[in-house]
Amino acid sequence: MARSSASGRKSHAGTAPRPRGVVLLVEDEPSVRRVTLRMLESRGYPVLLAETPDEAMQIAAAHAGAIDLLLSDVQLPGLDGPELARRLREQRPGLKVVFISGYTREEAIANAPDDPTCEFLQKPFTPKQLEDMLARILAAPESTVEPVRSKSAGGTAPAPSKLDP
């Protein structure tokens, strides 16, 4: 279910527009996908939407050079988020990556090599937490993105949690 949005860039009165970039959102849980898509679109981010890693790879191939950031769940059917990011970065070395999961970073990426250039945001997160992280990452030059080790919206969670629509 590939979908793209072309939300315009909006700035609030009296504030400078935040850095924007095209986000490839990969999330297999429908309610989390819907909520996250709404968060991104309401803040002016253009979004390419994929339900599976295979679909994300097809979308990335069709939008050569147009994707600035991968926002992906860690646990996905088929490839996991870290492997998807690795494959996409083979074609786009400068691609910025944020993983999302109901687990802590340590739990979510326990079986994958920890990549310090990838960010992590624990579910559930607020629209402001998501926007602040993406704005910081997109504004930073590729080589200077400082990773935040365990960005949590509300402490650690022993089991995955899903956002309600």
- The helix count comes to 5
Tell me the distance between the termini: 18 Å
Poorly predicted parts: 4-16, 143-165
How is the biggest beta sheet arranged? 6 strands, mixed
Q: Tell me the overall shape.
A: globular
Number of strands: 6
- Strand residue percentage: 15-25%
Quote the CATH topology.
Rossmann fold
What is the helix/strand order? EEHEHEHEHEH
| Rounded mean pLDDT score | 79
Helicity level: 25-40%
Strand order of the largest sheet: 1-3-2-4-5-6
Alpha-beta content class: alpha/beta
Report on the architecture of this protein.
This protein has 165 residues and is an alpha/beta fold. It has a single domain, classed as Response regulator (Rossmann fold), CATH 3.40.50. It is 31% helix and 16% strand. Helix 2 runs parallel beside helix 3. It is globular, with a radius of gyration of 15 Å. The model is unreliable at 4-16 and 143-165 (pLDDT under 50).
List the helices and strands and how they pair.
Elements: E1 3-4, E2 23-26, H1 30-42, E3 47-50, H2 53-62, E4 69-73, H3 81-91, E5 96-101, H4 105-108, E6 118-122, H5 127-139
Parallel strand pairs: 2-3, 2-4, 4-5, 5-6
Antiparallel strand pairs: 1-3
A few lines on this structure:
The chain is an alpha/beta fold. The protein has helices at 30-42, 53-62, 81-91, 105-108, 127-139, and strands at 3-4, 23-26, 47-50, 69-73, 96-101, 118-122.
Features:
single chain; alpha/beta; Rossmann fold; six-stranded mixed sheet
